[in-house]
Amino acid sequence: MSRTNGPRKFALPALACALLWIAGALLVWSASQALVDARRDLSAARADLRTQRARLASIAEEEREVKEKLTVYRALLATRVIGAERRLDWADTITRVRAERDLLDVRYRIERQTLLRSAAGKPAPVDFFASSMRVQLALLHEEDLLRFLYDLRQSGNAFHAVRNCQLQRAAGGESIRGIVPRLHADCRIDLITIIDRGAKP
Predict the structure, then answer these.
(1) Of 20, 24, 63, 94, which sees the most CB atoms within 10 A?
(2) What dihedral do alpha carbons 18, 19, 21, 22 form, nearest 10°?
(3) Would the pTM count as exceeding 0.70?
């Protein structure tokens, strides 16, 4: 009877031990899987964080570019370069500069406006126009010409692009207001204006 009961005595503990071993193995496997899942989630979270940071950096860069362009646009508005050409303002400016600089003689002619370039823009293109102006001046010295061109640029009625200027000595010219000019200048100046087709009226 004791021989029969001997193996039975160890059967239950052996079964319990086997079950505990299996349970332990399952716990280890489960913990290992949880660790793998956690690492995968952490890697995905890091990748998502990098993506979000890249998007934020891109948004910040776009915002910076918009601010820079807005600053340039406002500066152009302030100088009245944007919009229709202002021929009356240009004429008034030349008359004022001539009087302030006490220039002997200034004659000018502004030709018809022509389209220089049309640049793509949102929501509509931006057109660059030029009105070519020929200016002839009677001068006492070269600085008179430089000051005249400087005053034109500072007037802010257009962007003044000097195409060329020719200076010649006045050989026995007629006196103007009792003064004989020493030089004659003949200049070609492009008056640039910008039309933003997408701007609200």
Answers:
(1) 94
(2) 120
(3) no
